[in-house]
Design goal:
This protein has 229 residues and is mainly alpha-helical. Helix content is 70%, strand content 4%. The protein has a single domain, classed as Four Helix Bundle (Hemerythrin (Met), subunit A) (Up-down Bundle), CATH 1.20.120. The protein has eleven helices and three strands, in the order αααααβααβααααβ. α2 packs antiparallel against α4. The longest helix has 27 residues. The radius of gyration is 18 Å and the shape is globular. It starts with a helix and ends in a 6-residue tail after the last strand.
């Protein structure tokens, strides 16, 4: 039974790639709302599969599958390819060539040995392009603003700044997860009922979580400095 549960967790993670493929199909058909909902579904899967994997002890119960590699493959689809295609298709970027910056930068980010530090931080901007794409769309950002943010964050992938890994936080954990749930609910509502949510300023209110994430990353992580031996 434990092996079945472990393989089930791997299947759950792999389903994130199916969700990403569905989002690409929705984007190709100009169905922005389904695409956004599928992007949010991909975020949800990634948010919980790590906890499920640790609970099911997948490393020992299903050792033939490298869960971290599987997770990276799915994340590159959902965190990079899908949102970048979405930004191009919706006209958020002034030209499709802007898509090269996050795609190339994140290819480096995902493949570097020190992508995650020994003390459980992401090193460099952790390619949250899906979060950026969703906010840019809901806030109706101009192409110039979107291009500027894409350029800055693409450079940020190479800057050795330590960003928190939410599921492995050792402090501020309860508050961070509560805030994340509120943000996810607010953004989901904004996608499903844009007129009502706009009157309640839900998207703007949900920005409190990205602000908290950046502040906590600075407070707990900051710039990683290497000391010469």
């Amino acid at each position: 039974m434990r092996r079945i549960l472990a393989w089930g967790v791997h299947l759950f993670t792999a389903c994130g790639a199916v969700v990403g493929a569905g989002a690409l199909v929705a984007i190709a058909n100009g169905a922005w709302t389904p695409a956004l909902l599928l992007m949010l579904a991909g975020l949800f899967i990634d948010a919980v599969d790590g906890m499920l994997a640790r609970s099911a002890d997948v490393d020992r119960q299903a050792p033939r599958i490298d869960g971290r590699r599987l997770d990276d493959i799915v994340d590159y689809v959902n965190y990079v390819i899908v949102p970048v295609v979405f930004m191009v298709a919706t006209g958020l970027l002034p030209h499709w060539a802007w898509a090269a910056a996050p795609v190339l930068a994140s290819a480096y980010g995902f493949s570097q040995v020190a992508a995650k530090t020994d003390d459980d931080f992401f090193l460099g901007f952790p390619s949250y392009w899906n979060v950026l794409a969703i906010y840019l769309f809901l806030l109706q950002a101009s192409p110039s603003t979107s291009a500027l943010l894409v350029a800055v964050l693409s450079v940020g992938v190479f800057v050795p700044w330590k960003y928190i890994y939410p599921s492995k936080l050792r402090s501020h954990r309860a508050f961070t997860f509560t805030l994340a749930i509120f943000c996810f609910a607010a953004v989901s509502w904004s996608v499903l009922d844009p007129q009502r949510s706009r009157s309640l300023h839900l998207v703007e209110l949900s920005l409190v979580f990205p602000a908290w994430y950046l502040w906590l990353s600075w407070h707990l992580g900051g710039l990683m400095r290497t000391t010469a031996k």
